[in-house]
C-alpha cells in the first residue's frame, strides 16, 4: 500500500521530531511480510500491526472493508481515519491500493481537537474529526494524490497552529514520542519521572493525543521491537530477552494483548497471505 509521511518542516513552533518514528519503522518491516501485489485487481488482504493513527485516501473504483478487534466495517469512506490501534488492522482491498498517511500524535494535535482515545481501535470519517482539508482528494489524478494530500495537510497544520488552544502540550507530546522511540522504559511512573511531569498529566496527554495510557504505549513499542527480532531470528524466543521479557510466557501474554494470537501464528498467517496473493497474481 502506498505510504506518505508528514514532515517536520510542516509543524512549526520550533519543534522538531522524526517524520518516521522508530516504532513506525519497526511496524513497517513486519507489515511488509503481508505486502500483496496491489497493482493487480483484488480482492487482497492486508494486515497492519497496532500503532499510531493513519489516514486512508481511497480512490473511486476501490472498495476497502476492514476489521479491528470485533469491529467490522463493510466499506470505508473515501477519506477514512484509522484511529490509534492496540490490535492489528485487517483490510480487504478490491481495486487500486489506497494511499496511507501516518498521523503522529503531534500531527493529530495540529489537525483535530477530538480526543484520540475516542477513536482508539476504531475507523471514522475524516470529517468526523473536523479534518476537511482533504475533501475531494480522491478525485485528484492518481499520480498527484500524495503530493496534494501533504500540501493540504501542511496548510491545515499551519492554520491551526496559529490558533491552537492547547499549545503548551506540544513539548510534552514531542518528549513522550521520543521516550517511546528510545525504548527501555516500560512503566508509566518511570516515564513521568523522566519527563519531569506528574503521572496524572502524562496520562492525560497520552489519552488525548496518543489514544492510550502511557503504559500501553510503552508496552506496545517494546512488543513490536521484540516481534521484529523474533521474526528476524526465525522465531527464537531467546532473542527477545534483551527487550525486558523475563521468559517466553511474558512475551506470549503481550502477543495475546497486541495480536490476539501467538507470534508464530501471526507471522505465519501474514506470510501465508502474501504468498497466496503472489500465486493468485504472479508478476508480469
Please tell me about this protein's structure.
This protein has 284 residues and is α+β, with helices and mostly antiparallel strands. It has 2 domains: 8-164, no CATH class; 169-274, Arc Repressor Mutant, subunit A (Orthogonal Bundle), CATH 1.10.10. Helix content is 40%, strand content 13%. The chain has 9 helices and 8 strands. The strands form 2 sheets. Strands 1-6-3-4 form a 4-stranded antiparallel beta sheet. Mean pLDDT is 82; it is low at 6-19 and 275-284.
Strand order of the main beta sheet, please?
1-6-3-4
Instruction: Characterize the largest beta sheet: strand count, sense, and whether it forms a barrel.
Output: 4 strands, antiparallel
How many structural domains? 2
Structural class by secondary-structure content: alpha+beta
**Number of distinct helices:** 9
Give the helices and strands, then pairings.
Blueprint: H1 22-31, E1 44-48, E2 53-57, E3 63-68, E4 71-73, E5 79-82, E6 89-94, E7 99-103, H2 105-111, E8 123-125, H3 145-162, H4 170-182, H5 188-194, H6 199-210, H7 214-232, H8 248-258, H9 263-280
Antiparallel strand pairs: 1-6, 2-5, 2-7, 3-4, 3-6, 5-8
Helix pairs in contact: 1-7, 5-6, 7-8
Pick out its properties.
284 residues; alpha+beta; 2 domains; four-stranded antiparallel beta sheet; 9 helices; 40% helix; disordered C terminus
Entry summary:
The chain has helices at 22-31, 105-111, 145-162, 170-182, 188-194, 199-210, 214-232, 248-258, 263-280, and strands at residues 44-48, 53-57, 63-68, 71-73, 79-82, 89-94, 99-103, 123-125. It is α+β, with helices and mostly antiparallel strands and 284 residues long.
